[in-house]
Amino acid sequence: MLGFFIFAAAFVTLLTLTVRFGGLRVRAELPETKALGLTLGFVGLMLAAWWFVTQGATVEARILSPIILPSPMEVLQAFPKLHFEQGLVRSALTSFGRVTVGFTLAAIVAVPLGVYMATFPPVSAFFRPLALIGAYVPIVVFVPLTLAWFGLNETQKVGFLFIGCFVALLPLVIKDIANVPAAYLEVAMTKGASQWQLVRYVLFPVAQADIWDHLRGVYGVGWGWIILAEVVNAERGLGYLIDISNRRGHTNAIFAIIIVIVVIAVACDQLWRLGGRMLFPYANRK
After folding, report:
1. pTM of the full predicted structure?
2. How confident is the model at residue 284, as a pLDDT?
3. What is the rounded distance in angstroms from the CA atom of residue 102 to the CA atom of residue 96?
4. Which of 26, 62, 113, 243 is most solvent-facing, going by the fewest CB within 10 Å?
5. What pLDDT digit, counting tens, does each position of 211-234 carry?
6. How far apart are the first and last CA of the chain?
7. Which of 142, 143, 194, 137 is nearest to 171 (CA)?
8. 79 class by beta-carbon count within 10 Å (0-12 exposed, 13-18 middle, 19+ buried)
9. Where are the domains of the chain?
């Protein structure tokens, strides 16, 4: 425990010194090429550190045992076996389908409900407990609950992802609608807009770019929950492969599957980002 405190203190101290004496400017614009270079620099530094602590021909010669942290080459060597013997691609497609279906169902319910809760106080008062669940109830508690509600079949996994995405998305949609300036409503009302027209043509259009960004974020979070969704009675899926690899002590396979999850999540995030730029070119998309 002391080692963690020392590491945290050293990291914050080094970061603070860099910010304090590095000549950085507050909220200064950073060219995209330079930002990409810094990001790649961090990735390269992490890969170099990973190689350094796992190099060695024998376990005794390594700083970290392969059970704790396999080398980059050992992780790469796990991919062929995962693909040919354990159906890595099929499991990835299964997990993708589960995340997408659960997220889509959550968006269908959470977006209109969040719009109405932020717009009409009676609706907000009635459904307020749903918004509080996401803030105070850990998502992991829904694993045994969905098992009790839906059993051990596919419905349980999609249901868990639905609940997880829903409780994360609902407060964000409420916040986006609530942040719409009142001036827009006042102008529309002076033009004779009805209550429904205020929702349909003012509140939602003004907030939709921000809602899109939050949809993008929650979809990415759904990939973080896929492991919990597939931990029980899953015949396939990336979470299932991680559980099997853990039981067999194949740490290198676990890292390989984590890389696959990250790659898929990042690819989907970039597609969401591209969609946002196309749908809302007026917004400053990052």
Report:
1. 0.86
2. 64
3. 10
4. 26
5. 999 999 999 989 988 888 887 777
6. 38
7. 137
8. middle
9. 79-279
